[in-house]
Amino acid sequence: MIETTICSAGPQTVSVEYGTGIAAVLQPGAADPEAIMRRVAERHGMTSAAICGHGRQRRFVRARWDAMAELRAAGLSLKEIGFLLGQRCQTTICHGLKNHAKLMETGPF
Questions:
Q1: Tell me, what's the pLDDT at 104?
Q2: How many domains does the chain have?
Q3: Eight-class DSSP state of 18
Q4: Rounded distance, CA 30 to CA 42, Å?
Q5: How many Å apart are CA 3 and CA 19, to the nearest integer?
Q6: Cα–Cα distance for residue pair 103/63, rounded to 1 Å
């Protein structure tokens, strides 16, 4: 379990399985974001491109929220996560992280 701050919602506890790669492109020492995206996509039965797309169906949105939470727990900034998830702004990422935290309180996907 890792304690991380999600936007201004206060500390949240997030359980994350880390990849083994290192992404020098974003932050030195951060987990490999592409590996995280592949793992989340596989878990949700879709492609990474579908998660990064503009689909607004529940299955795409929840997979996107899951990816946001894992990427944030891996140490990426809101801007970096937004860039990886299809050029989304950091406010969108913050909103998604808050919704993911609420969803995890009520039960898993």
A1: 93
A2: 1
A3: P
A4: 21
A5: 18
A6: 12
Joined tokens for residue 104: 């995890």
| Contact partners, residue 37, CB within 8 Å, separation at least 6 | 48, 51, 52, 67, 71, 84
Q: Supply the CATH number for residue 102's domain.
A: 1.10.1750.10
CB 92 within 8 A of CB 81: no
Query: Which residues have a Cβ under 8 Å from the Cβ of 102 and sit 6 or more positions away?
Result: none
Q: Is 33 exposed, middle or buried (0-12, 13-18, 19+ CB in 10 A)?
A: buried
Q: Are strands 2-5 and 11-14 parallel, antiparallel or unpaired?
A: antiparallel
What pLDDT score does 15 carry? 37
The domain of 34 spans 2-106
**Which residue from 9, 11, 108 is spatially nearest to 62, judged by alpha carbons?**
108
pLDDT at position 30 is 56
Specify whether the CB–CB gap between 13 and 101 falls below 8 A.
Answer: no
Instruction: State the DSSP H helix or E strand holding residue 5, giving kind and residue range, or none if neither.
Output: strand 2-5
How many Cα atoms within 13 Å fall on the side-chain side of residue 99?
16
* pTM of structure: 0.73
